[in-house]
Amino acid sequence: MIRIAIDAMGGDFGPEPVIEGVVQALEERKFIPILVGDKEEILSFLPPYYVDKVEIVEASDVIDMSDAATDALKRKDSSIYKAVELVREGQADAVMSAGHSGATMTAATLRIGRLPGISKPGLATLMPSIGKHKTLVLDVGSVTDCKPQNLYEFGAMGEAYAEKILGISSPTVGLLSNGSEDSKGNELTKATFPLLKNLKGFIGNVEGKDIFNGKVNVIVCDGFTGNILLKTSEGVVATVFDLMKQYIRKSLPAKIGAFMMKKKVFVNMKKQIDKDEYGGAPLLGLKGCAIISHGASSPKAIKNAIFQAIRYVESDVNTTIEKRLSEGN
């Protein structure tokens, strides 16, 4: 049975939403959660029925959001360090944390290690799209200063993930640029373009609008650009919904229309753009699986992050990533 090491102390709201998410996941799937953190605090939130369905590993330290990412390597009794070590030692198949993302990425990269041919892991996330499949974007914050080789590796990893996890038989890959013409881009993207031609699914440069229109399955960019893109998109979604609410309140016909569309339109729309549906972002390129969730994750997000980790392990996507890189080289 798949074993998931879970940083029970990570996140903005402590262990309560994490443990509630674990309980929700256990109600739907069979797996073994290994909760890492303060045992007494964990047990105070864990319903008695589930005590014998989880394992608990004691950790007396927690990496706070204000701490440096490298603290994760020095503070070996922290919950995230111990959770990562379980994967390194083969006692867990994957690690999931809603705690300090930088600390999680640092610990996972240096303790679990990278796949052969990967210079730096990439953080991937799914973005809503009007197409059949959501769009996978990477990197969204792992590597802010990239070299062309990094972007090529992101493309290969994204292509493998889209095939094995998203179930797309022949995924397409695009390079995010300021225009779709081959000649467009900055120094980095122009140098990356010929490398990405080694990927079967590469279709060339794509623009920001193509993230949401279903033109491409995987979009490659540096972590600095990707992180800004991600946070801008979240802000736009929140603003659009707030504006809709404002205008609906001002008009009786709009209120009636909104009531009629509530179940069929708004519920489906919210599900499409709700980040809790994805749970977290996989750090691709590791000799294992690490899922990084938002600090403010709800129990639903934790549950879906766990499911994402299970799918990752079951798919053996890392073997496909290694194959892609070997073929490209």
Question: DSSP strand (E) fraction?
Answer: 5-15%
Element pattern in H and E: EHEHEHHEHEEHEHEEHHEEHH
- Give the beta-strand count: 11
CATH superfamily of the domain at 1-118 and 285-329: Isopropylmalate Dehydrogenase
The 3D shape can be described as globular
Q: Terminal Cα separation, in Å? A: 35 Å
Quick recap:
The protein is of the alpha/beta class and 329 residues long.
What features would you describe in this structure?
The chain has a domain at 1-118 and 285-329: Isopropylmalate Dehydrogenase (3-Layer(aba) Sandwich), CATH 3.40.718. Strand 10 (281-284) and strand 11 (290-292) form a beta hairpin. The longest helix has 27 residues, at 223-249. Helix 1 (15-28) crosses helix 10 (299-315) and helix 4 packs parallel to helix 5. It has an eleven-stranded mixed β-sheet, with helices on both faces. With 329 residues, it is of the alpha/beta class. It is built from eleven helices and eleven strands. The model has no long low-confidence stretch (mean pLDDT 87). Keywords: Acyltransferase, Cytoplasm, Lipid biosynthesis, Lipid metabolism, Phospholipid biosynthesis, Phospholipid metabolism, Transferase.
